[in-house]
Amino acid sequence: MNVDLHTHVSLKTMLGAVKNAERNSCWYTLKSNFLDALSGGILGSQSSLNQMKSGNIQMAVTPLYSLEHAFSKSWLLKDVVTKIEKKLSKKYLTKIRDNQISPYANLCEELQHVRDAENSNMVLIESIDSFDPGKMNLILALEGLHSFQDKYIDSVQAHLAAITKNFTDFIIQNRVLYVGLSHLTRNPICTHSYAMKMINDQAFIPEGSGLTDTARAMIDLCYSGTAKFGKKVLIDIKHMGLNSRLQFYEYRKHKNYTSIPIVASHVAVTGCSFNNIKINSAHASDKYEDCIEVSYQHTSSDVVYKYETSPQLEYVDFNPWSLNLFDEEIENIILSEGIIGLILDMRVLGSKGDDFGDMDPEGSEYFSKASYESLKAENRFNTNPDTTPITDPTDTVDIDSIVGLKSTMHLFANLLHIIRTYHKQHNNLKAWDHVCIGSDSDGLIQPIKEYQNATNFDDLREAMFEVFEAERKRDHLKVYFGTFDSRMLVNKLFYSNATKFINANL
Fold it and tell me: If you write DSSP's letter for every residue of 381-427 in order, what string do you get?
């Protein structure tokens, strides 16, 4: 059995029509062979309920999310993609563009859309006491407080009033495990992380310099224990900008919230400290106002492999974009008894994607001018070239026999860095209890090539077992596996860690 901390069961079918009565069920699997061949698998279904059932997913957290306004303005999505793929609705996108759909009403429709899919094989649960071992169990989360606006286009004051009221009402009426404060576009809550190269629009470029007063009020509300059943709603730090996250950690200390678990639901790692962010250059953007364009140096892992048919060594790099976790954040999350869900997007993991929406680690990331100046004043950027020599290992793993090949090694490298980072500070392997899979399937990801959708979960589990068995034989990596059996470690990653976390916090 498998557990997924973050997967979208309803996003693709929501895009198919304006009203639920016209939409395909969440069980429906959208196939888009032509566009997926161009996009690296972004558009076809990756986590329909049928795919998840085939992948032996017993429990999953599914975020509700209202599509952001900037997507509806994209000619590529609205005019080209919908013309080729008839299962995606141009009318739906046009109504969002024209401010004829309420984000909050849309979110409530999505909740009903998921509930309509309940049957003898799936149940939406609000308490661990309702867990049904004979069914797939879904748990609600929320991705972006923009979804609680009454309108897409309105004044900031109107947005903030609507978000405060609607979000408060929603978490009292519905059990939500975690909420992300921001998503991919500008919002009135906090500065977000840049993550959208596919569409050129100022709305995707971060603005501001961190948390607003409303963000702090929302954190207080979530942590107050006044949500449904007297529970807390946990904060998911994914998509928050680095400034926002740094301020979030400080605010937790100030308010004595540090024992409340932090969620990083679908992430990878940068491979470095947030006090040593290695960049090549930073300059004012030619494309966007009040924006700094930053290019990074490579951040390399210790994972090296080769193919039997080639003498060339393959070095696994991380993706250093600030969307991903810095070393201090890994420690913060684990010390809070939180959870880190590893994403299955090859670009975010550091494996260079295809040209369509490629998040190339060698490409540029955009920071708001205010955020960049704040980080620079704190001496967080390092422009000195890394002169550390690369030493070819003598015990390189031959991966010809490993099913997952290159993409699996990137997933492993990100996992290993989490284990190593915590071990370096605390000399123990506690980190193995705080990692799981948060695939972000159907969240417009480019899936790692050998695991295109949820039906492949067991294949990925087996490939990771083979990687563990091979890598733990390398002298300098043995300490990070300890005496744990590889099967036990795989089960922690794919099932038991997320299960324990949900049991403790739902």
Answer: EE-S---PPPPPPSSPEE-TT-TTHHHHHHHHHHHHHHHHHHHHHHS
The domain in which residue 98 lies consists of 14-121
DSSP-assigned letter for residue 433: G
- Do residues 89 and 163 both lie within one domain? no
Same domain for 110 and 186? no
Domains: count for the chain: 3
Q: Which amino acid is at 191?
A: T
pTM of this prediction?
0.94
Please check whether residues 327 and 414 belong to one and the same domain: yes
State the helix-helix crossing angle for 242-254 and 327-335, rounded to 10 degrees. 40
Cβ atoms of residues 110 and 64 within 8 Å: yes
Could you read off the pLDDT of 204-234 as tens digits, one per residue? 999 999 999 999 999 999 999 999 999 999 9
208: left (phi over 0), alpha (psi -120 to 50) or beta: left
| Rounded mean pLDDT, 332-353 | 91
Of residues 392 and 351, more confidently modeled: 351
Asked if residue 377 is part of any domain, the answer here is: no
**For 367-392, what is the mean pLDDT?**
84
Which amino acid, one-letter code, is at 306?
Answer: K
